Structure formats: structure tokens, C-alpha cells
């Protein structure tokens, strides 16, 4: 993936590191980055927390956050990326949580179904946490790939120093 190569190149040029915490993408984001030769200089870790239990145990997502907002929420994406930073101390941290499908999520304790294609991507850079909401069309594979591509765009923008003006575009 060309954008992953660009992101790794800019991270290297600027002496920055990155880390990922993934749910619905199941490691595809980390895989895209580590596909690039030399990525070990800038990519420290990728954590796949597919279950709520692992989100709590590995990333410190609070039970209250999951109970009130659900695993697929801006609040959980923000908690995941903050937990990832505490774990990795990477300069740029990304989290991804969403509903890849098929179909909507099961009702989450009265919070209702979340539609297929709903994805939240968290970014922590320079002490600031940003979360974007996206709704991707397509089948499971296409939604997961679109989430990876959006995450890589955000990483590239943050590494290039454009985070304030362009994150999520």
C-alpha cells in the first residue's frame, strides 16, 4: 500500500514512532505498516483487542465506558488510543474500532444496533487526542480496508505535521 510506505518514510525522516490498537481491522493496519521494509525503525507495536475484555485488560478501557457507549464509539476509540500511548509511548498512536459486518452489531445493552460500516479512528499525537467517525460502504473486507486506508492517511498527516488542519479529511 503506497500510503503506508509514505507514512513510514516521513516517520523515519522526522525521527517519530508509531503504534496501533485495532479491533475491527484485526491487525491489518499494523500489517500494512510492517509490510514496508525498514518499518521496524519507526513502528514499535500493534495491539489487537478484538474483545471488550482485552480492551480493558491491555489498553485500560474502563468498563463504564464500554457499558455506557459500547465498544464501537468515539469514547472507546479515545480510551483505546490513550491506553496504547501509556503502553507504547509512541509519538503517534492510532486506534480503530467499528462494525465491519456482515450486518449491524448486536444491540449493546440498550444502546441499540450500530450499522455496518460505522468506524471510529482515534489518533493521539503531541498530547492531543482526536477521534473521527466514518461510515464506509461495502462488504466486510472493503470496510476493513477502507478503515486501514483512512487510518494511514491520518498517520501520514500527523507525521507530516498537518494534524491540526487535516485530520480526518
What is this entry, summarized?
This protein has 169 residues and is of the alpha/beta class. The chain has seven helices and five strands. Helix 1 (2-14) runs parallel beside helix 6.
Tell me what you see in this structure.
This protein is an alpha/beta fold and 169 residues long. The chain is 44% helix and 20% strand. It contains seven helices and five strands. A five-stranded mixed beta sheet has the order 2-1-3-4-5, with helices on both faces. It is globular. It starts with a helix and ends with a helix. Mean pLDDT is 92; it is low at 163-169.
> What composes the largest sheet?
5 strands, mixed
Strand content: 15-25%
Query: Treating each run of at least 4 consecutive H or I residues as one helix, how many helices?
Result: 7
Show unreliable segments.
163-169
Helicity level, as a percent range?
40-55%
Number of strands: 5
**Rough shape?**
globular
**What is the CA-CA span between the terminal residues?**
19 Å
- Reading the helices and strands in chain order gives HEHEHHHEEEHH
Overall pLDDT score? 92
| Order of adjacent strands in the largest pleated sheet | 2-1-3-4-5
Amino acid at each position: 500500500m503506497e500510503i503506508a510506505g509514505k507514512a513510514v518514510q516521513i516517520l523515519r525522516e522526522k525521527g517519530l514512532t508509531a503504534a496501533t490498537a485495532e479491533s475491527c481491522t484485526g491487525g491489518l493496519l499494523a500489517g500494512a505498516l510492517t509490510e514496508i521494509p525498514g518499518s521496524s525503525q519507526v513502528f514499535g507495536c500493534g495491539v489487537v483487542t478484538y474483545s471488550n475484555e482485552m480492551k480493558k485488560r491491555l489498553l485500560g478501557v474502563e468498563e463504564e465506558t464500554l457499558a455506557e457507549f459500547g465498544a464501537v464509539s468515539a469514547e472507546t476509540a479515545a480510551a483505546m488510543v490513550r491506553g496504547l500511548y501509556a503502553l507504547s509511548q509512541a509519538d503517534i498512536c492510532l486506534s480503530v474500532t467499528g462494525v465491519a459486518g456482515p450486518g449491524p452489531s448486536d444491540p449493546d445493552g440498550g444502546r441499540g444496533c450500530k450499522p455496518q460500516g460505522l468506524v471510529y479512528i482515534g489518533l493521539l499525537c503531541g498530547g492531543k487526542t482526536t477521534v473521527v467517525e466514518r461510515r464506509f460502504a461495502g462488504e466486510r473486507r472493503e470496510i476493513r480496508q477502507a478503515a486501514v486506508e483512512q487510518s494511514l492517511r491520518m498517520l501520514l498527516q500527523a507525521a507530516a505535521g498537518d494534524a491540526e488542519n487535516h485530520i480526518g479529511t
